[in-house]
Amino acid sequence: MMLASTANDLFWMARYVERAESIARTLSAAGRISAIPQVSGEETNEWSSALAAAAQLNAFMETGREPTEKEVFDYLAFDESNPSSIKSCLTQARHNARSVRPALTTETWEAINTAYLDFRKYEKAGHSLRAHQEFLRWVLDVSLRVSGTAFRNMLRDERYWFSRLGFYIERADNTARIMDVKYHVLLPEHSEVGGSLDYYQWSSILRSVSALTAYHWVYRQALKPWLIADLLILREEMPRSLASCYQNITTFLDEMARAYGKQGPAQRAARTTHSRLRNTRTEDVFQKGLHEFLTEFLADNNKLGAVIAEQYNLA
Amino acid sequence: MGKAAFDEMNGFGGEHRAAYRQLQAWLEDTPVELLEQRRLEAEALFRRFGITFAVYGQKDAEERLIPFDLIPRVLTASEWKILEDGLTQRVQAINALIIDLYGKGEILKAGIVPEELIFANEAFRPEMIGVEVPGGVPVPIAGIDIVRVDAEKFYVLEDNARTPSGVSYMLDNREATHLLFPDLMARSKVRPVERYPDELLAVLESLAPRSASSEPTIAVLTPGSYNSAFYEHSFLADKLGVELVEGRDLFVRDDVVYMRTTQGPKRVDVIYRRVDDDFLDPLAFRPDSMLGVPGLFSSYRAGNVTLANAVGTGIADDKAIYSYMPEIVKFYTGEEPMLHNVPTYRCREEEALKYVLDHLPELVVKEVHGSGGYGMLVGPASTKKQIAEFEKKLKSDPDNFIAQPTLALSTCPAFVDGEIAPRHVDLRPFVLTGSKGTRIVPGGLTRVAMKAGSLVVNSSQGGGTKDTWVVED
Q1: CA of A113: which chain B residue's CA is closest?
Q2: Which of A190, A312, B32, B254 has its CA 20 to 30 A from that of B98?
Q3: What is the pTM of this model?
């Protein structure tokens, strides 16, 4: 038994930290690809893609700013008016954490609180490439510390499960979004493989989810767009894949159902999505259309969050 | 400030008081550079733990640290015995007073406390008349502010029977001393305070309503994370191992209080509430309260939930009532009060008012309902203009004020701006009363005025805190 509001805070705390990490990885990948000379000459804007991956393109455009590196970085990292900026995410995570402090271990609380206190330092560091990189590395460190302390020290009960559910739902959302932004360069087998620009786009996708090395371990061949889709959607051994996220989500929901002695709509919804991912082949995904597949997935994933909130009185 | 203050380490000058012998030797052996280093460590520690405090009306300073002074304050076991006995007696009288005021009113009938002082008082809750307090103890948690003026004399400065705060600092300060100066702790025979949460839990359990199960569910009710004392609320819930709830986490059905959990409603039996009476229940008190729980008071009246502290206990904090405390103690306990009040002029009485107006520059004037060091005049430290302003206030609303002589509060060595210097202190021990009697953890919160000569120790006004030791004689 736990307070519903505590469960809600734990769920969102984990989501916000994971979101901060995703944005940091997206910014990092965008910085990388836009620094490659042969790409920057062509008609592409990695910074708009970064905004799209963070689901912030429209909101950014409404501010009337130009999607340059400086503006986008500032908007996604430091802008308080953007509810999904890294700063907003970490502030919100800390607010959630502070509200439920007794439910956290000291280490997890300190990881989040210290991040909040140290943020100012990075805000003032200015807009050099090096300052950006240092900041992004720090965000990844923060996320690692928060997850790591939870993994190592938290009691395996509903507190842990709710925070992991938030974490995996957010992660699945991010992975699907990053792919969806680039779905036009992810083409089925047998289609003509593009030029060097596409190659960098592919590696950028993998970098955004830190899967470049994993790709080579799994496939032992050069980057192929359909294999990238396979890795990030269907491979359970790939921790950021949709399949892996749903394997975890079903596990944690099942643990909760066992502890509470009751299965419900959340368990059923998660299991449905999970088995769909298990029974799908890459060809099926492309046949349906990658974009359509991802759109449907994002809607289901979003809905699962609402179903969990409903079933466990979180709202 | 005229009169020299009693220093708890050096007396009135030059002597070395036995209680401080060991600490003094340690201070002499410890270079100030080390102290400064430890002070910075302590600050980092408090910040990292999030032991912060919000000051009302200061937006940019949303979360501040209360300065922690490194040098512990020392009381001997025999000094503590005096306080312990006196506090127990006083808090028992306060509990009897609250029950009587909302019950038979015997103290009023006996003419000991004037009726109009009670019935016209904002802190008096007519809604409580005739209500049998669930658990039977209206003030399970009291914080009594004590000041010291010489080797023997302790005075009670203020009674806090509403929602005394600061106990988390008592515990955190001790923890900090353990971390910063383990060797010093190891060789000093300091009585532990760590069992406070267990004592508190036992008290709260003992006061569960009759209709509760044998394992009552307890919760700490906080106004929320924006409240200045939120850290303490979350600290207490954590240490007690109970849920920390806000108003929105609770609801009332058929006069029973429930909390909303992931598995549906769960009954709550005892609420350690850190929300003021006014905001507890919009149906019974302020209708605009967003912090409260509609129906809570009705459930309380029905005897289905215990509130700690009870509704309406703030009447005992009133400084005009305070002035009658010696008589109140005598009335309920049949004994002479062991702890003395500071001599107090009730400005509502004509003669007293005249004296006060004639002697403003040497007196401390306080609002009867005031707390936190606000709305107060410290005569000797005030400008002519401030005194003139207060004179006007006094004349237009004398009932609202009491006055006391400016006490030379004792000082203790403090580490400020890189040196050790005496600073004025007070002491707030926390007095717990359950169905099985009164318990006091040996120690309390020592508040210290960080500015030289200042007598204002309130954290809202820049005061700091100290670890407080009770050591074996």
Answers
A1: B48
A2: B254
A3: 0.91
